[in-house]
Amino acid sequence: MIGDLHTHSTYDDGASSLLEMAEQAERLGLDYFGYSGHSFQPHGEAWCIGPDRIGTYLTEARSIKERFLREGRTLRVYVGLELDIYGRPEEGLDYIIGSAHGFSLGTDGRVFNVDESLEALRFIRDELFSGDPYLMTDAYYDQVARIPEATGCDIIGHFDLVTKFNERYPMLDVRSPRYLRRALEAMSYLVEKDSIFEINTGAMSRGWRTEPYPDSLLLERLHDMGGRITINSDSHHRDTIAYSFDLARRRAMEAGFDSVFVPTEQGFEEVGI
After folding, report:
1. Would you say 157 and 97 are in contact if contact means Cβ atoms under 8 Å apart?
2. From CA 79, how far away is CA 94, in angstroms rounded?
3. How far apart are CA 33 and CA 26, in angstroms?
4. Where are the domains of the chain?
5. How far is it, in rounded angstroms, from Cα 171 to Cα 48?
6. Distance of alpha carbon 134 from alpha carbon 112, whole angstroms
7. Model confidence over 69-122: pLDDT tens digits?
8. Distance CA 22, CA 225 (A)
9. Topology given in CATH for the domain delimited by 10-272
10. pTM of the shown model
11. Is 199 in contact with 222 (CB distance < 8 Å)?
């Protein structure tokens, strides 16, 4: 079975409609497909689904799900949300991807997102963490460890998002013990929480990385810890659904995985890669 649960649409910061996304997934021959629009959070209006649109998003997504079922189409559609640790939860979802995009520091509630831009990341490092990238990554992984409690998620989104720009514009050594210590502590904690980690190809389709999240060493350590995985694209356009999944599956197998977890009406179930 192959599918894609991490996708965005014109309801948040994507470029294709909900129906366009599902129809493209069907054309690609996927077995399942999920909507995971960004949950609303303060200071995230430019890329989140606003409170005035969340009801419409859920209604339209569920209508498409029901239409595909009614018409006997082979693609199974699921309705979810990418819920940030500062986000607003919703009821009645098929699944939740929990994510940490940044830090809320100060008294005004502003969130500084590590994936917004290279300039924003450098500002976070220099102004919030005294120019020390490892203090920044320690704080980031402290946020990642909060994801299950903050979101009640099924899937951990883009575990090492803080390294999005590092391949093209190196800021830190991802093999450094200073970096790995906190990353692996967070990973171990999330494995104990029985979280599913996604292999995420989103930064690849947007030209920032040539490898998916998590990177190869973290993926190997995740396998050694007994972690569970699924494969997602974090697509923001119909043309990048299931982007580079062949590479993602290859990296999973190289790390030692022989199965992934996929959605069913009874919850997530294990199937062979």
Report:
1. yes
2. 5
3. 8
4. 10-272
5. 28
6. 17
7. 999 999 999 999 999 999 999 999 999 999 999 988 765 777 899 999 999 999
8. 34
9. TIM Barrel (3.20.20)
10. 0.97
11. no
DSSP per-residue string spanning the chain:
--EE--B--TTTT-SS-HHHHHHHHHHTT-SEEEEEEEPP-TT-TTTS--TTTHHHHHHHHHHHHHHHHHTT-S-EEEEEEEEETTS---SS-SEEEEE--EEE-SSS--EEETTS-HHHHHHIIIIISTT-HHHHHHHHHHHHHTHHHHH--SEE--TTGGGTTTTTS--S-TTSHHHHHHHHHHHHHHHHTTPEEEEE-HHHHTTS-SSPBSPHHHHHHHHHTT-EEEEE--BSSGGGTTTTHHHHHHHHHHTT--EEEEEETTEEEEEE-
* Tokens linked to 207: 């030209």
- Cα–Cα distance, 148 to 229 (Å, whole number): 15
Q: Which of 89, 118, 90, 85 is nearest to 103 (CA)?
A: 85
In sequence order, what E strands does 105-194 have? 111-113, 155-156
Quote the CA–CA distance of 41 and 27 in Å, as a whole number. 33
Write phi, then psi, for 232 (nearest 5 degrees): -135, 160
> For 175-229, how does the pLDDT look when each residue is reduced to its tens digit (9 = 90+)?
999 999 999 999 999 999 999 999 999 999 999 999 999 999 999 999 999 999 9
Closest CA to 174 of 134, 229, 121: 134
Tokens 């990353």 sit on residue: 183
User: What one-letter code names the amino acid at 123?
Assistant: F
Q: Is the peptide bond before 212 cis (omega within 30 degrees of 0)?
A: no
Contacts of residue 167, Cβ cutoff 8 Å, sequence gap at least 6: 208, 209, 210, 211
| Backbone φ, ψ for residue 72 (5° rounding) | 70, 30
